[in-house]
User: Fold these one by one.
Assistant:
Number 1:
Amino acid sequence: MGIKPLVLFMTSEMYPFSKTGGLADVLGALPLTLFRMGVNAAVVTPLYGRMNTSEFGLRLLTERCPVGYPWAPITAEIYQADYYGMPIYFVGRGEYFDRRNLYNTHAGDYFDNCERFNFFCRATLEWARRLDWAPAVIHAHDWQSALVPAYLHFWRRTDPFWKDTKTVLTIHNLAFQGRFASRLFFESGLPAEAWNMDGAEFYGDFNLLKTGIAYADSVTTVSPSYAEEILTPRFGCGLEGMLARRRGVLRGILNGADYSVWDPRDDKFLPCIYKAGCAEGKKDCKAALLKEMHLPDQLEDRPVMSFIGRFRGQKGVDLLIDIIPRLMEREVGLIVLGEGKLEHEARLQELAEVHQDRLRVIVGYSEDLAHRIQAGSDIFLMPSRYEPCGLTQMYALRFGTPPVATAVGGLRDTIVPHPAPGATGFTFQDPTPDGFFAAIQQALELWDADKPAWEAMVDRAMGQDFSWEQSAAQYIDLYRSLGARV
Ligand code: ADP
Ligand code: GLC
């Protein structure tokens, strides 16, 4: 019996090794779910400086994997770890990846991001050549991996090794495209014929995501609604025309939630565990959270809201900031965890000074606190201007914390809005402070006026099932539709 055809994932971040956002959660779960469903999956990711690899037994495979033109004689180190039996290959090169952060500092993006991630793409392909068989599918994610579909599109013509390898590019956020000066295209190793408006060129610049969209065999994004939205100027970030041209290969597959990490029935970060139908455990988590946040006990009987996310325009944190004074006139608590734009961090901290008995703002990144906030709060706020999928609202649902969210993208696909039958949360159409505040008021009214109805909503929210198996099955169908016998 031969080896099963390989699906090789490429990602710039993967939980629990590295993470800046939802991309890491997706790559921490999707490949492993496929692997457990019998797909021969493996992942390639950069080896960053501060990485959580110790418990996974990292070992060096080669110190000198050639990367080819335009890098020769520079080489990559390749390491391997076994992640519950599935191979993870790490691409190392200190000068590119051994840095404090993954992509940027407060001062801006690293100046050599194009070179860093093109190096990652080329090292992945050269490493893949050293595996026994060419992968049946290379599944690339976001702009950092998006040149791989383009290389293969051109190499397949002359290199028999790649002739049967199909490429899938998943877009997690169209706002991040990897846009660089044109000269970097001509140094990239892609053929000059890719330099046109249906290829790598974007208003005179080299656009990595667009390049991937142009040449991938299949393009996916992370929710059905976002797959529609990105064909419009409002959400297309200038690529709506290109996406429309590739509409035939574009598909939206909803992300899943990894309930082995995010489930209050068995969560290592919580002071106590709980499940649907037993409100007591959640109450205890709330009391413990209020204590941890030094918020008054009186809030135990009042709704405590939360926001967890990057302080950026996408997440609508400015809408939240705008309504905080109004919100604080109500008898409610609010806990905000996140980091991002300095002006938002500063404004939130000022507001927290003014409303010390109601509002806590934690500027920073804390995986375990995120779990405790999800569990210990009552209403989860997510006023995103756009949301390709969004994982935090799925986690909030499972933790019995009904979300108040904008009706966009994956939020629309995962929340059943009150007062529809089977409601699991609250949504609003236009991302304005008034629209957001009105939706919060709906939630507060239900909380105050009809406690049994509130508790029924909490139970329904906890009963939602966004397990990865359902999404993984759709990816298997997709790979097979490309002819891969996975
Ligand atoms: P995005 O990827 O756009 O940031 P998602 O909802 O898909 O949004 O995923 C965000 C992920 O990052 C979740 O796992 C969330 O808990 C986590 N996260 C975001 N900000 C923080 C923070 N400040 N501390 C801890 N976890 C965070
Ligand atoms: C991006 C999107 C987010 C999505 C995540 C994982 O970061 O902003 O909506 O959930 O990717 O796909």
Note: The CA atoms of residues 91 and 120 lie 7 Å apart.
Number 2:
Amino acid sequence: MHRTVVGVDIGNSTTEASLATIGAAGSVEYVGAALTRTTGVKGTVNNVEGVATSVMRSLATARIPPAELDLVLLNEATPVISGLSMETITETIITESTMIGHDPRTPGGRGLGVGTIVGVGALADTGPGKPVIVLVSAGADFDATAAAINTAVGRGVDVTAAILGNDDAVLVANRLTAAIPIVDEVSRIDLVPVGMVAAVEVAGPGQSIRTLSNAYGLATIFGLDPGQTKAVSPVARALTGNRSAVVVRTPSGDVEDRVIPAGSLDLLGENRRARVDVSRGAADIMTEVARVGPLRDVVGESGTNTGGMIATVRQSMADLTEHAPADVHIGDLLAIDTMVPQEVRGGVAGEVALENAVALAAMVRTRESGMQAVADAVATELRHAGATRVEVVVGGVEAEMAVRGALTTPGTDKPLVVLDLGGGSTDAAVLEADDHTGASHLAGAGDLVTKLIDAELGLDNLELAEEIKRCPLGKAESFFHIRLENGTAQFFDTPLPSTAFARVVALGESGMTPIPTRHSMDRIRTVRRTAKTRVFVVNALRALRAITPGADLRQIGFVVLLGGSALDFEIPELIADAVAPFGIVCGTGNVRGTEGPRNAVASGLVAAHVSALSNDGVRVHG
Ligand code: ADP
Ligand code: MG
């Protein structure tokens, strides 16, 4: 008599099912698999819907009627949620009307112009000789503007540049008798002060400005002393990489770089504790996390954003699991330095500066899990759906099951380390030659990568960020070809959609997604790879150190990567490169030789069940 068994792994993002039939002699045949999105927070009764769906689907793939299902094995899923916060720790403020960093999409002309700002209406009253920059408010007609400038220049007025409210720079530039640099799209043009000395710089297509992005360039133009040069250096920094810029020197106007107090974290370790200020950045925070580890809990300074984030994570976990907040502990923390675009306070054209920020991911676990309640609810649900004789049991600890499942990858053997790269957490487990196991759970995984990409590119669109994370980039250079990020070209027989033309696109399996930003392909690629490195390479090394005696990575022979993020087209490579110096063989798992990095825990549950049966057998007969 064979038995029909399904192992189910409830993850933070995905619920996976592995269906097997077990023969009377203990032989196992895997006959089906399915996966679905996890419903509710892992380890809570809301998971039932996703579990039932994945079980029924796995039965359907093998054409086994629900009535023949004997047993469902669930993993011991400790609820884990990861909280995420992004703290901006620097701020650029412009006082008075000093304008920085304005980089319109289509500036006109090229070169550098320095002069006193004069309204276009006052141009007729301006005498020759003195260099001037013309200021034109929004709503002005480009023909009239060009005519006024040409007339003045004809009278000998030294017009060196123009600042426009409208998006007209190219139209005006094309009508001028003498070429000058022009910036446009200055939305709050009424804030630009007439009578002050300013500088406008426009670089050629594909180039970036040289003078206004150089502190000494600014000092030369405005005659600054060393103290003043130091004060304006943030301006130069903010303008780096722009194709155009305008800087106005006002008597008391200033640009400040300010460090925002972000609050401190109290890290409570097993034996040590530490307090660290978030504005000190990720490196300092992670040094302290490693020093006091293993972490028992983390408390954020109350009244600060950091304190708020830590408290919110703890409270939402307490609510979901019906535990008291005091029973909810933060078991790991990952801090990452990022640069996020923020609108400059006091700017006149929506200027954006890249500010330093720290992203914090925290992993919260409760003391005990409520998996028995989940198992009971799953049994009720499945019996309703026709699985009349099913039993549901909580089968085993996730990390141990993951190694068992990973061992079904061809070419692997004990001792073995698995790194499960999921959505919310990075989990490591080790199976020693003597069957001894160990595990470590770290905050930060695929979802954090997506959020970093979203924030650093200023997208405010997590779906697009997810697409950018998963796909290589290309740029539509003509209607029939795309330049791929690796430099090669891909040709098409039919014209590309007009929405993609001249845009950077993410090349997914189902087509291309245009990325509606002004970032170059190189910049998007760098942001993507840096985010993956900062989360997964950092966590892989932390996890391997945590589970290796003496943190000596040279003792590890084989690492198998599992989980959704192991499907990524570059994360496995980035990790393999980082661990290669330790002589570690690292690759993506292929569970049961067919499932890729998916289904390890679900398959491991079945394998553990079978080996427990045969052990019992040995005992009975021996
Ligand atoms: P969990 O075990 O926590 O439920 P998963 O193993 O399902 O998580 O992994 C979810 C993560 O995997 C998500 O961050 C998702 O973006 C990522 N992911 C899934 N498929 C891919 C893919 N093809 N390429 C890159 N990342 C992927
Ligand atoms: Mg998982």
Note: The chain has four domains: 1-78+369-398+598-622, 82-89+260-366, 92-256, 411-589.
